[in-house]
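EI: anyone free to look at a 242-residue chain?
SC: sure, send it
EI:
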Amino acid sequence: MKGSRRSAPAAAGRRVAVTSADRVFSQIVSDIHAGVIRPRDAISERDVVRRFGVSRTPAREAIKRLFERGVLQVGSRRMATVKEIGEKDLRDLYDLRLRLEAEAANLTAKYATVSEIAELRSINREFVRAFRARDLARMLHVRAQFHSVLVHATRNAWLAKMLIMLRDEAYVVRHAHWEDPSRARDAIKMHQEMIDALASGDTARYRQVTLRQIRDGLSTYLSRLRPAQRTASIRPASSKKG
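SC: here you go
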């Protein structure tokens, strides 16, 4: 397994202390990326204290970091709320991501191993199970694993790190995309197309499908964003019908 390649001696010799504020901050960011906490959801100091069993000081420090990171903004009634990314910022993010993903696709197609392709097949089967269970949080987690295998197959650690960061920052798009069952079904097919292209060594086909999936995600989100912007009272959660 890939994880076994990491060497432990340096980490074992010098442990970095993780504070309560670190733990709370990391978990909230993870929950936002996983769709557990949604854009425009309120996060209060009291809720953080109750949920994580910490005192007010680390709760306050974690919330302060979330503001500094740009994850939170001041919403109505001066409440801290999860920031919703605007259309311009999203377009800028996706413009950069598409350029980097195009380069990454060429490298992934060149270097992906038989074992990595087998791992992708296994992950896609897990995505199917999560979809059938209508488990959105699990779908988001499994899709992140799929993307991680692909970008690490580039054999370029810096490119992989940048692409994972950009993908994480696009969490609002993923949440909207995967809530639509037809989009999730399409994703399963596209995953399989990507895997088949890698297995057959078809670089152009793999790159085409990869970029199409990314563009489709953005266009789906923007088509839903514009009507929502005209009706500010509607919260994201209210779009979950059926």
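EI: The beta strands are 72-74, 80-82.
SC: 👍
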